[in-house]
Every structure is written in structure tokens, then in C-alpha cells.
């Protein structure tokens, strides 16, 4: 499995407007000019930068003129930076958005934010829908809050590819799903496609609402627009706090199989005419339908990997690769586990347990490694993914006695502030598990990283 990004959900850090400098590379043009962390770039080439896009656009040359604010004395100093071809300016900013985040104006029936526990911290309910984060970070956006000027900026600056949520194409279905501004999203999308912007699209599929005939209509619409180079279809996920949904495809294997069958002719046509599959189903559909995940070549290089498209296939293939190319390391780990009387538990969500079990078998044919699938009682419903594991569930479900156990926690259950969704810290969780007698480490949940983490904690590197 390709490396997963650490979750950046609901950061507890305060967002401050302005292009604040977080770090400066020593020896870089910015460092030579005397720019320091904590300063703010107020203008670049005479322009007040709204975001990292403006910064890159206005500073795209051998020289750039800045106005820099120093909060220590309130001064604003002009400075001129020069660089060699290919050299970076050497500035990292605290955020990619300098003028604040665009929030969502929709009322989506399936919005996960509306299904959070009532005690969830306020930052979890921030609903961003910012086209700039689509380009800069790969977030999916609906485009319903994009103005004509912003649409023109996307085309003029070539902000491509964009990740866009479509969900449905029939106007009345879109309005029922998204809200009264649903038509604006399609209007802007058509404008971007006409301007040559490549789009990776998404559908959140809700049983009885935008599946069946409506899904076929949406697929037909996408098929006629070559600028949409991939379409991810992911199932509705619901929690126990949802007032609208109490079931999804995870509760109906036949409905999942029907979605798989509906997609097949579109996939076959795309492969025969374009050489790509283009129409992709999330891994959950294959798991829920009790069908094998497709081979790697059908995923077109995994353009929508972080939308859950092909993660299981990538993990399985990397397990085979690691077993072949790092057999000596696997054997060393297993031998040391046996010598020290240790066993390994890889913590994961219920959805990934069987797949991660393939790595456990490759690591220790003697059975000294296994998964520890954490049931998600905090969210409930059909939530079962690794990235949404919370401390409350983890610590309740882990044994009180963990002597002789090497516990590997998934990095994706923590955000950049090393917090879980229920607000616990990585450090406290590690301390608690160690108090129960465990050896504990944190790893990106893929085979190569698992193996590296085990080698390190066992002192074999």
C-alpha cells in the first residue's frame, strides 16, 4: 500500500490570516534576506497573497520583491530575493490558505459532520469546501460556492487536476442530496472542463437515492466528458448518531453486487477506448459484496487512492513484494520474536483486518503476529475504517495484560497534532499501553513501514 497521509482532521491549531512564515531553510534566498520564522509576507511582487497559489504564481521567477512584517517591532521591510534556476525560495508557511478557509454552503443528506457524537469538539464540525484545497491538498469540493471570478482564476492559473464531488446529475436528485445551490456546482464544473481543467470526480452513493437509474444517468454524463479522467464511487457511511440513515451497502451484499455489475460495462468501454478503467469503486463495495478486489492494473495508477480506491489491492501486492524482496528481514523479526517470547498485534479497523492479516502471515508463519481489529463503538453505525479508531474504543478493547506483546498502532488514527478524534494524545495512549506491559510503536499501515517499525523497536536496524 502506498504511504498514507497522516489525517489532518480538525487540527486544534488556531488559524491566523496572513502569509505567516513557519520555517526558513538555512542558506536559502529567504534566509540570506534575513526572513525568519514568525514573520509575515504581506506582499509579493506588489500583490497581497491570498494563498499558496498566489505565492507560487507571483514568485515564479529568478527574482521576487517582498514586503515582510516583523511582529516584534511592527515594522514592514521591503526586500528583494534572487535565486538560481531550480532553487527554492526556502520559505514554508504555517498554512496554504492566507485569507481564511471557504466553508461549505450545502446541506448534504450524507454529511458525516452531521452524524458526529454530541460531545465531539467544535473543530470537528468545520465543513470546508474550498476549491484551493482541492488543487493544493486533494480535498473533494462541490464547487457550489465558487464565484465566476474564482472559476476564471482556476482556468487562468491552470489549477489542474481538481477533485470534485458530483454525487448525482439529475437536478432534482442533486438538490435533494446537496441543497438549493446544487445546480451551481455543475455549472462551474462544466466551465472548468471547457477550460481544459482535468477533474477527478466522486460520488457518495446513497441507497435508494442516487443509485440504480440515477447512478446510470450520472455515469452516462461523466462518460461523455473526457476531462473527467477518473470517477470514484464510495458508499454512504453512517454513524449511530445519524437521524436519516440506519443502513447502507455494508448491510446489503446483494445491493453491493448490483453496483459492481452496473459499473462493469462502463469500465469495459473505458478500457477498450481509452486504455484506462476510469470508473472506480471503493474497496468497501468489494468487501461488502464478498468479491475479490480487482488486480492492480485496473486502478490506473491509483489516482484516487486516498478516497479508498485500491488501498486493499495495493496492500496485498506490497505484501507479496516485501515477502519476496525482504524475506531475510521478515525471518529475522520472526526469529527474534520467538527468542524473546513476544507476539505482535497490528491495530486496525475491522474493514482492514483480513487484508492486514496477509502481512501477519508473511511475517510469522508460526503465528506470532496477528491483527487487533478495533470495533468502532464511538461512532457506531457502519464505521469500521482504521483512520477513525478512537482512544476510547482502543483502550477498552485492548487487554489489561499486555506483557510480551508488541503493539503497532496505525499512524492514521492521529492527526498532525497527534490527537485522536476523541481528543486523546498519542503520548498518553502509548503510556497507557506500556503500563499494561506492552512494547508500543506507531507506523504507517503498510507492509514496508510495518517491517521497518518492527526492526527498529526490536533493535535490529
UniProtKB/TrEMBL annotation:
Residues 84-229 form the Putative radical SAM N-terminal domain. SUPFAM superfamilies: PDZ domain-like, Radical SAM enzymes. Coiled coil: none annotated. Transmembrane segments: none annotated. Residues 234-434 form the DUF512 domain. It holds the Pfam family Radical_SAM_2. It comes from the Bacteria. This is DUF512 domain-containing protein. It comes from Thermophilibacter gallinarum.
Amino acid at each position: 500500500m502506498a504511504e498514507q497521509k497522516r489525517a489532518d482532521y480538525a487540527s486544534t491549531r488556531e488559524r491566523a490570516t496572513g502569509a505567516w512564515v513557519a520555517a526558513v531553510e538555512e542558506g536559502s534566498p529567504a534566509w540570506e534576506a534575513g526572513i525568519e520564522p514568525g514573520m509575515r509576507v504581506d506582499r509579493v511582487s506588489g500583490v497581497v497573497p491570498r494563498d499558496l497559489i498566489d505565492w507560487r504564481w507571483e514568485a515564479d521567477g529568478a527574482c521576487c520583491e517582498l514586503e515582510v512584517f516583523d511582529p516584534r517591532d511592527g515594522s514592514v521591510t521591503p526586500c528583494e530575493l534572487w535565486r538560481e534556476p531550480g532553487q527554492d525560495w526556502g520559505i514554508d508557511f504555517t498554512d496554504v490558505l492566507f485569507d481564511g478557509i471557504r466553508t461549505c454552503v450545502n446541506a448534504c443528506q450524507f454529511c458525516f459532520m452531521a452524524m458526529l457524537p454530541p460531545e465531539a469538539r467544535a473543530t470537528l464540525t468545520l465543513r470546508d469546501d474550498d476549491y484551493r484545497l482541492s488543487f493544493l491538498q486533494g480535498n473533494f469540493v462541490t464547487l457550489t460556492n465558487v464565484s465566476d471570478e474564482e472559476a476564471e482564476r482556476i482556468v487562468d492559473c491552470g489549477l489542474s487536476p481538481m477533485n470534485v464531488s458530483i454525487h448525482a446529475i439529475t437536478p432534482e436528485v442533486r438538490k435533494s442530496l446537496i441543497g438549493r445551490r446544487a445546480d451551481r456546482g455543475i455549472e462551474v464544473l462544466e466551465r472548468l472542463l471547457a477550460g481544459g481543467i482535468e477533474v477527478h470526480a466522486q460520488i457518495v452513493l446513497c441507497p435508494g437515492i442516487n443509485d440504480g437509474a440515477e447512478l446510470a444517468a450520472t455515469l452516462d454524463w461523466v462518460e461523455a466528458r473526457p476531462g473527467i479522467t477518473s470517477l470514484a464511487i464510495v458508499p454512504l457511511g453512517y454513524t449511530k448518531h445519524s437521524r436519516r440513515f440506519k443502513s447502507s451497502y455494508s448491510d446489503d451484499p446483494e445491493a453491493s453486487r448490483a453496483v459492481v455489475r452496473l459499473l462493469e460495462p462502463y469500465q469495459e468501454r473505458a478500457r477498450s477506448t481509452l486504455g484506462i478503467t476510469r470508473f472506480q469503486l471503493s474497496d468497501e463495495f468489494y468487501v461488502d459484496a464478498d468479491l475479490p478486489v480487482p488486480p492492480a492494473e485496473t486502478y490506473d495508477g491509483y489516482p484516487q487512492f486516498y478516497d479508498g480506491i485500491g488501498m486493499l489491492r495495493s496492500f496485498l501486492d506490497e505484501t507479496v513484494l516485501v515477502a519476496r524482496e525482504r524475506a531475510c528481514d521478515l525471518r529475522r523479526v520472526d526469529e527474534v520474536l520467538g527468542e524473546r517470547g513476544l507476539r505482535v498485534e497490528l491495530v486496525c479497523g475491522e474493514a482492514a483486518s483480513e487484508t492486514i492479516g496477509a502481512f501477519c502471515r508473511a511475517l510469522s508463519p508460526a503465528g506470532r503476529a496477528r491483527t487487533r481489529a478495533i470495533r468502532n463503538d464511538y461512532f457506531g453505525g457502519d464505521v469500521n475504517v482504521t483512520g477513525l479508531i478512537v482512544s476510547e474504543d482502543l483502550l477498552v478493547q485492548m487487554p489489561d495484560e499486555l506483557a510480551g506483546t508488541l503493539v503497532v498502532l496505525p499512524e492514521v488514527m492521529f492527526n498532525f497534532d497527534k490527537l485522536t478524534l476523541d481528543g486523546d494524545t498519542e503520548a498518553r495512549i502509548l503510556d497507557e499501553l506500556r503500563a499494561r506491559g506492552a512494547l508500543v510503536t506507531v507506523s504507517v499501515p503498510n507492509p514496508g513501514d510495518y517491517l521497518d517499525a518492527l526492526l527498529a523497536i526490536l533493535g535490529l536496524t
